[in-house]
Structure formats: C-alpha cells, structure tokens
Amino acid sequence: MVPGILKVTDGTKNKPIDSNKVIKKSHDNSKTYRLGEVVEFTIEATNIYGQNKNMIIEEQEGVTITGNTRFENVEPGKTVTTTAQHTVTEADILKGTVYTNKVSVSFENGKKFENTDKVAIETKNSKLTVNKRTVSTPKDGNVYALGEKIEYEISVTNSGNLTVKNIEVNDELTGDKWTVKELAPGQTSETFRTSYTVTEKDVLAGTVKNKATAKGESPDKDNLETKVDPGIREEAVETSKPSFVVIKEAQEGSYKLGETVVYNIKVINNGNVSINDINVRDDLTGDTWTIDTLKPGEEKELTAKYVITEDNILDGEIVNVASAKGQDPKGNDIEETGSSTITPEEINAHMIVNKKTVSNPKDGKSYKYGEEIKYEITVTNDGNVTLYNVNVSDKLTGDKWTIKELTPGETSKVFKTSYKVTEKDVLAGSVVNTATATSDDILDKITPEVVPGKQEENVEAAISSVLVEKKAKEGTYKVGNTVTYEIKVINNGNVTVSGIKVIDELTGDKWTIDNLKPGEEKIFTTKYVIKKQMKIEDM
C-alpha cells in the first residue's frame, strides 16, 4: 500500500453525493413476503469523511434494528454493518404489493444520508372460508331416513390477509343466521350449531346438500370485495320407498239381520314419499272415495255402512275388502287392499203360529155341546232366514194350508177354520186346539223350529140327563079296544148315557138302551087292551 491522503466530500447542493456510496440496505429478494412474515434486513454504512466519525443508524417506524445503532470513531472509508427486521402487517398489504423501507445514517458534525429497500409483499386478499361439518350419524349407520335430523357445526375462518368486519353467516338450508363482529386474518369464529330434518324432497333427490355461506366488509370495501369459500356438506339419504296400507275394521255390534255395520277404513302412507290420486273402493258397499295426496306418515279415515242380509246369515261370515290404487311421485301405480271379516248371528230358522178364537159362546160364558168355535190362524217368520213351503195344519179341525214363501219378519195371510164342541170336549171341560207348521230345511240340514198356536176354550160342565115321553092317540076307547103307546127316550143332556132300562108299568114291557148320545132318541111301542070304560088320559 502506498500511503496517501483520502479526500472525501459529502457533496454540494448542485452535486450531491450518491447515497448508495454512504448507506445500503438489502434483504432476501427471492421471495414475496406474506402477512406476518419477518423481513430480515442487512444495513451497511460507510464513513465518507476524512476523519473518524461517530455514525448513528436509524430506521423508519415499524422496523426494528436488531444490531448496533451507533458506531464510535469509525475510521475514514470504513464500512460498518448492522441488521434490522420488519414483520409484514395488514397496513403494509393495504398500501400495495411493495413495502419501501427507508434507512438513514447520521454523522456527528456531518450530514444525514438516506436510502431505501423495496420488499415485494403479497397482494391484498379479503377472504372468508366457511367451515361446515356434520356432527350427527344416521340411525342405521348408513343413510339418513325421512324425518331424521341432521346436525351441523359451522364456523368461519378469515383465510385472507385483511381483517373482515360485520360478518353475516347464513345456512341456506335451515335459514339460520349468525353475526361475527370481526375476524382478523387467520382467526376462526366461534362454532355455530344448526340442524335440518330430512324431507320427502330430499328422499327423491337421494341426498341432502347443505351450503353455509358468509359475507363481510373488507378494510378497503370501496375497492376490494370479500371473497367467500362456502361450507358445503352432502349427506346420503335413503332411497324412495313408495308405500301405503289399507286397514279396514268393523265397529262392534251384534251383527243381526238388518243391522247396519259401520266400517272404518284407514289409508296410511307408511312409505317415505307422497302417494297421489288414490282411489279407494269398498267392494261390499260400492262406496268410492278419492284422496288427492297422502304425505308420508299421513292417514285418511273413511266410513262405509252396510246392512246385513239374509245371504250373509246363510254364508256364516261377511268378508269386506277395501281396495285402493294410487301413484308414486314417478307416476308408478301402487295398489293395496284391506279386508275385514265378521261373523253374523247364527241361522235362526224359526216361526210362530198365531191362533186366536174369533167367536164367542152363545151364553157369553162357555161353549156348549155342538156349538161352533171359530178360529183365525196366521204364521209369522220371527227368524232370520226365508222359509219355503210352509205347511200349516190345524190338528183339531184337520184343515191344512200351504205358504210358498215366508220372509224374515213377515206374517202370512189369515186362515180361517171352525170346530163344533163334542161330548169329549164336555167331559174334558175345555176345547184345546193347536195349530202348527213345518217347512223345508235350511241348507238341507237345518230344520226350522216352530212355536205352535194353541187356544183353549171353556166348555159347559157335563150334564147327564134323559127325557122319557109317552103318548097315545087321544080319544075315548071302549072296553076291549087296544091302545098303542109310543114311548120316546131322549138324551137331553150333553154326555152319552149308557145302560138305560125302560119299563112300561101298565103293560109290563121292558127295554134296554146300551148307549144314548146327547140329542139322540130311541122310540119304543107298546099295546094295552082296555078292560073297563075310561078316557085315554086316565090310563
């Protein structure tokens, strides 16, 4: 080295010194710095004066010198080095994509020199990311069913590099909304909870798609819109299962002939989609109904009425079927039936013979021997099946009649007959007259039962009496004349008299009558020769 003299000037007004010769600042410029990253700076300052100088390094606000800031007695021409660092802030990003860092060195009793270093920083980005997750599990472990609840948790993260304020979070499916006052970059909100119940529309779609979104204000709201990445969840839903059932029940009753049976018909959608245009028909009554739409779980109750017939009684049971036909959401036909079987009352093949006396005894008290008793006879079917070929007979008179057909509850026309009181009736003290009937078997195995018609009429008490009349031709008879007498024996009672002995005291003639019925008479003749003059009435 050849010793010499260093002549340094700090420049003039017209010709200032190049600051790059006095102070330099550098950093790793191979990258673009992001929010929160630290930029490490190297600072080099050279003493441009010809004598030793104290040098003071100063940084702008926001930059921290991490090395020495003051250097003492720095020799002329000597360069000193220090370091500094700066953390990229949101304010830096808002200013643009270049961060300019100004550094200065001051010489005591000298000038102050400045220089800059430009740092590339990321572009401003106002962005929110909605985080959504499903926190429930399907009951069957695989897919959600109609009416099942899906539970969600939602939060919002500021995934940009600028603070976002007045954030409104919205779940589009449930309609729930929440508000977040502000989120700094990288900050995540509190967790919000919501739930959704699976609908028929979801079943038809096969999935539940749920999107949660948000909106907020960026610091540069006039020039920069806040972008949003929504939170989307898609959950599998059970497949469409169109189905309905028809339930038919008869209300309780005795189920007798002519009784009205009330049927309750329920059409229930036990599937997971609506059934439309359902036509319901009661096969027994012929009633029809239309159900426009039956939603899952919904039911419609219908009522039909039916009057029990004789055929039902004969069949022994009443089977009633209700049929229904509808369409699923895809237009496919679905048919179902529901039946009810009830047992009506048992077959009751039964009739009553009604018999009444329509005459009165002549004495107003009791009938006498030979007096006529008049009757009227009808037959009533008091059972529950029609009787055919009903043969009616009056046992006492022997009269008979035929009724071709007698329906339940029907009474036949009136049959008339009469009977004359006999000695037997007098002895019995009354006339008992019974009318009865028979008819064809039901189903060739059930013989109809009958209650006979019976009438008993009082008859006068038994009177055993015989009247004897004797007469001859009136006149005067001479001695020696023969008089012929007629003797008449009359039963003037009401019972037969037996062993009657007749004696003519004048002639001595005798006769015997074995039996003489009421009203019957026997005539005998006897002769007598007159022995002295006398009138016939004196004999």
Q: What's the CATH topology name of the largest domain?
A: Immunoglobulin-like
What's the rounded overall pLDDT mean?
93
Tell me the Rg in angstroms.
68 Å
CATH architecture of the largest domain: Sandwich
Q: Return the CATH class of the largest domain.
A: Mainly Beta
What is the topology, as strand order, of the major beta sheet?
A: 1-2-6-4
Low-confidence sequence ranges? 1-7
Structural class: mainly beta
Give a quick account of the main beta sheet: strands, pairing sense, barrel closure.
Answer: 4 strands, antiparallel
**How many domain units?**
5
Helix content: under 10%
Number of strands: 38
| General form | rod-shaped
Strand residues, percent: over 45%
Output the number of helix runs.
4
Query: In CATH, what is the homologous superfamily of the largest domain?
Result: Immunoglobulins
Straight-line N-to-C gap: 228 Å
